[in-house]
Amino acid sequence: MATPKTALTAAALATATTGMVLTTAPAQAAPSQVTQAKSVAHRLIPNAAQYKAFSKIVEHESGWNITARNSFSGAYGLVQALPGSKMASAGSDWKTNPATQIKWGLNYMNSRYGSPVGAWAFWQAHGWY
């Protein structure tokens, strides 16, 4: 009698091999929303290397979706602030304005890691920032 083979899901495999549970990928943002957010980020971060690092973090964290929410932690927005309400320090429109989220995220990266490049280096080493 043949033994049935059980296929592991990606989450089960990740849990089995790393002890970590994968969360679902960020919900896709509308293409126009992504274009708008990236345009704002380019204006606020004119240095190409810093923009590239910032962009890589945002791509991994939220997929450029300004309303992305981590259902496990509650982190919110482009840069996945935890709690999202922290971004109110950059503007009362933090829930819906990519410029406010980008300003807050850039300030966070600069104050904690020295720059977006520093934040990206940390993200690469740890899978979070």
Which structural traits does this protein have?
single chain; 129 residues; mainly alpha; 5 helices; 50% helix; signal; Transglycosylase_SLT_dom_1
Give your account of this protein's structure:
By secondary structure, the chain is mostly helical. It has one domain. Helices cover 50% and strands 0% of the residues. The protein is built from 5 helices and no strands. α2 crosses α4, α3 packs across α5 and α4 crosses α5. The longest helix is centred in the C-terminal third of the chain and has 16 residues. It is globular, with a radius of gyration of 17 Å. The chain starts with 9 loop residues before the first helix and ends with a helix. 29% of the residues are buried. The N terminus is likely disordered. InterPro entries: Lysozyme-like_dom_sf (IPR023346), Transglycosylase_SLT_dom_1 (IPR008258). This is Transglycosylase SLT domain-containing protein.
